[in-house]
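Working notes for the structural subgroup meeting. M.R. asked for a predicted model of this chain before we commit to crystallization trials. I am recording the input and output together here so anyone reviewing the notebook later can reproduce the run.

Input as submitted:
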Amino acid sequence: MKKRLFFQCTYDGTNYSGWQKQPEVRTIQGVIEEKLSMLFGHQIVDIVGCGRTDAGVHAKEAYFHVDLAPSFSNDQLLYKLNNMLPLDIAINEIIDVGPEAHARFDATKRTYHYFIHQKKLPFHQNDSWFFPRALSIEKMNEAAKYLLGRQDFTSFSKLHTDVNNNFCEVYHAEWKEVGDQLRFEISANRFLRNMVRAVVGTLLEVGKGNVSPEGVKDIIAAEDRGEAGCSVPAKGLFLQSIEYPYI
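Returned structure, recorded in token form:
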């Protein structure tokens, strides 16, 4: 008899075309399903992820669920699957959940981090964006306050996406200096396609002095992607954590 399992995973997205399975390209979902299928006698195994990350985006903590009838314990499954997966994907934990639990729809809070560095850091070329421009962190944080609350974030969304609405509730948005890097932290109940990268690009325009902090409020109100800043490179973006009511 099958049971529903939640898998907590971590991955470096550098060498993948994002999370979602696609024909003829290497994706995180595709690789995990391939290894699970081999482990369970080459039966078709479909997993449901907590969301989609784009090509090059990383995850410190992501989840997916799958219905399986394993003939071994969760610890054994964890060990076997990790031995089969490539080194840039790791399963950290396997959790028994109820049959109605859903990795995508049950998430109550998602947090992303974006990293930039302003001097050359050779060991961060795949997980941080080199941006050697003078920035006002104070102004960027002033602008970030206008992101808080429940608002329509159309101005920061990729066009023509298959969602019912563009409303998100942002709980936290802040820039911090962390060692030799700057880290942007943002938490919300949901995110639109490309939203974090567009938000970061816009806040960097504030930091450079091209947009006033108050201007972010006008960009949001415009509900027009053309009003916001450019989308920053994927490699600096991490899905940092996800919260569920039962985990």
